[in-house]
Amino acid sequence: MNLVIALLSTRSFITADRIRETVYGYSGEASDEAFSRMFERDKNELRDLGIPLETGRVSPSDPTEGYRINRDAYALPAVELTPDEAAAVAVATQLWESPELITATQGALLKLRAAGVDVEAPEGDVAITSTGALPGLRGSEEVLGILLSAIDSGRAVTFPYRPSRSEPYTTRTLEPWGVVTDRGRWYVVGHDRDRDAIRTFRLSRIGPEVRPTGPEGAVRRPEDVDLRGIVAKVVGEWPTAGQATVWVADGRATALRRRGTVVRSRTIGGRAGEEITIDIGMFDRLAREVASYGADALALEPESLRDEVIARLEAHLATVDAGIEAGKGAETR
């Protein structure tokens, strides 16, 4: 800052020796080599910040090289950001705290704050504070970059996805519409081609092998879609605590029955069985387990669990039907 003030206070070029003598921070006791390193470092930092540092002759009669800041080039128009824009800048600078980008991030923040722009995220409007508070995103930066690029170019993506860390990956194909944060977690929303339905995927559960597929411009986000509303509904309806009510047929779904508590006997569809209550725990895992028993287990409550189990069964049925059609086609050939 002292160097900037000194170089702005003169119309003519001033020499490095004069700067060394008059600018606070350059110790007169430092060696010539130490001063040279400090001065070169500071000049490079000013240029990195976009400050127009010029070099030229001190005077027509003195060929010594001097330095100054061009006032006309240094003056900038007022920077005005809306609250939403300032929040977006805050999120971006907090998100990209990687070693490769931290220098540019700090430089951008310095410029904006010097212009009097508040780039702090409004409390409650932005779900994150730093990458350290985002264990779900850390390690998924590359995935996020590929997804955003695909959204921008209008392409579908394929990726491996698992409902939880203990479960295997399955390949999914998605027409991505956008990426949304909710409660400190990141989700991509779009049309799931495998289920022919709108689906939400947590980024931390997506494997690193994300590949764009299909032509550019083939995917378009519907005009009336509310991405935040979709994610809020999914996250809000997918409880991670509490209990679910499930019906299991007599003599079936033994592992599921052992984890639950029998409420009453009940006959459904002419089959005898029992209603049990079971801790939800991991919502995805429970939905997957209930669906794996087919007609031997039925999700009754909550409604979100029942809907998810039905969606999984319908997706499985669609896959089976596609395999049968493919087999018929092969026989015909």
Walkthrough of the structure:
- With about 325 residues, the protein is of the alpha+beta class.
- It folds into four domains: about 1-75, Arc Repressor Mutant, subunit A (Orthogonal Bundle); about 85-125, no CATH class; about 140-235, SH3 type barrels (Roll), CATH 2.30.30; about 245-315, Alpha-Beta Plaits (2-Layer Sandwich), CATH 3.30.70.
- About 40% of the residues lie in helices and about 25% in strands.
- The chain is built from eleven helices and twelve strands.
- It has helices spanning about 1-10, 15-20, 30-50, 70-75, 85-95, 100-115, 140-155, 225-235, 255-260, 285-290, 305-330; strands at about 15, 55-60, 60-70, 155-160, 170-180, 185-190, 195-200, 210-215, 245-250, 260-270, 270-280, 295-300.
- The strands form three sheets. It has a five-stranded antiparallel beta sheet.
- Strand 5 and strand 6 (about 185-190) form a beta hairpin.
- The longest helix is centred in the last third of the chain and has 30 residues, at about 305-330.
- The chain is elongated.
- It starts with a helix and ends with a helix.
- The model is unreliable at about 120-135 (pLDDT under 50).
Number of helices: 11
CATH topology tier name of the largest domain: SH3 type barrels
Strand content: 15-25%
**Main β sheet profile:** 5 strands, antiparallel
**Segments where pLDDT lies below 50 for 5+ residues?**
121-136
Mean pLDDT: 78
What is the correct CATH architecture of the largest domain? Roll
| Widest sheet: strand ordering | 7-6-5-4-8
What is the number of domains?
A: 4
Structural class: alpha+beta
Order of helices and strands: HEHHEEHHHHEEEEEHEHEEHEH
CATH class of the largest domain reads Mainly Beta
Overall outline: elongated
Tell me the span between the first and last alpha carbons.
79 Å
Give helix % range.
Answer: 25-40%
Number of strands: 12
Work out the radius of gyration.
31 Å
